[in-house]
Amino acid sequence: MAGSSCKVAFILVAFAITIPCLEAGIATFDEFLQERAEEAHEIALKSYVPDPTNATSHQDIHDDEDFKKTSKKESNITRRELKQNEKKKYTGPCLALNPIDRCWRCKKGWAKNRFKLANCVKGFGRRAIGGANGKIYTVTDPSDDDPVNPKPGTLRYAVIQKDPLWIIFSRSMVIKLNYELLISSDKTIDGRGYSVVIKDGAGLTMQFVNNVIIHGLKIHKIKSTPGGMIRDSWDHVGIRTRADGDAISIFGSSNIWIDHISLADCEDGLVDVIQGSTAITISNCHMTKHNDVMLFGASDTFSGDKIMQVTVAFNHFGQGLIQRMPRCRWGFFHVLNNDYTHWLMYAIGGSSGPTILSQGNRFIAPNNDAAKIVTHRDYAPSSEWEKWQWRSENDVFMNGAKFIQSGKPLGKLPFNKGFLMKPRHGSQANRLTRFAGFLNCKVGSPC
Questions:
Q1: How many structural domains comprise the chain?
Q2: Which residues are catalytic?
Q3: Global pTM?
């Protein structure tokens, strides 16, 4: 009887995983993908932190004195001044103004020790080391002609390799992906040193994988692209359906870090995190010219996203954005020290009872009186959403912005001990995000 019960439970788990996958770009969910989905789910469960407000497994160190030396209190500014400030390019000496950047930037020899970056991630994605245990692979060819047997030297060839790899680039290049780029586990894509632009084609997909770092790219104008036979790893080729046009899609994956990416103007989302993905940090990104910015959890019926834990830190949500910064379901989301300078509908939204902790952000509302509210809740009456824990602490609200809180306070949070980063006051969000997005790094000089 016990054996039969276990078998039934296994079938139910497999069924729960299989059904969503049929809508994940997978046309044929074969035995290889089934095994990989189950392995990825096990890793996600191990990566999940049952009580992130009481985790003590990793110390988060902040150099307070260094920050104080370079920090200025920000006074209220007009929208005209804000627009002028956004156009200015900094030309002075290297400044590293937040704890992630201070870990590696402004060091002249960063290119000789690229793996150092893997020690710098904080938040829920802090276990991501990408390809730090592997070799460096240099992309020399921007073409993307064969999705089944990609040419050596291309980005597609690099990301499907079996072993851990730290992927860099030989020169500046524009890459048009003819099919979605399926990235295998234990990879870092490191664009530092050159201008690496992915545009006018498909985006990046992490599906049923673990331990990936994406850093230092520009990703613009991603489009819906045809499906077909696409290699998703060294050992497997599968039939894919049409890709939606997401810049970055994270599906059933864990221990992922997205850092210093400039994202804009894609056909679907800029960053999607769905289907039981967890242990993710999105930091230092600059997002512009887009409607549905970030989606965390794609379904109000998929309770498997209860394990989702995402840190959103030091990002600049800039010109031309409309909504979903992020839009959350089910999980736990720590949104800290981001600069929200533009939205047309709302900034942070959600449904299905997510926990959202907003700390030290700056929210500058649009001039439209109907869009001053930072928060937006869907598919629940007030009697239900009033129980959801959406809390705001030390945020700064400008031009009439207002955060509607709900639920009980999370209590005293053990910063410097766990997976929750220690936030600065929202008055410093502009400074902390000053260098968000792609960095114009040059080998041999501070970045």
A1: 1
A2: 324
A3: 0.90
Residue 437: inside a domain, yes or no?
Answer: no
Phi, psi torsion values for 80, nearest 5 degrees: -65, -45
Domain carrying residue 120: 6-432
Highest mean pLDDT (candidates 36-40, 75-79, 257-261): 257-261
Is 248 within the bounds of a domain?
yes
Check which CATH number belongs to the domain holding 389 and give it: 2.160.20.10
The strand pair at 327-329 and 294-296 is best described as parallel
User: Which residues have a Cβ under 8 Å from the Cβ of 243 and sit 6 or more positions away?
Assistant: 25, 179, 180, 202, 203, 205, 224, 225, 227
Mean pLDDT of 403-416: 87
Task: List beta partners, residue 280.
Answer: 256, 310
Q: Is residue 441 part of a domain?
A: no
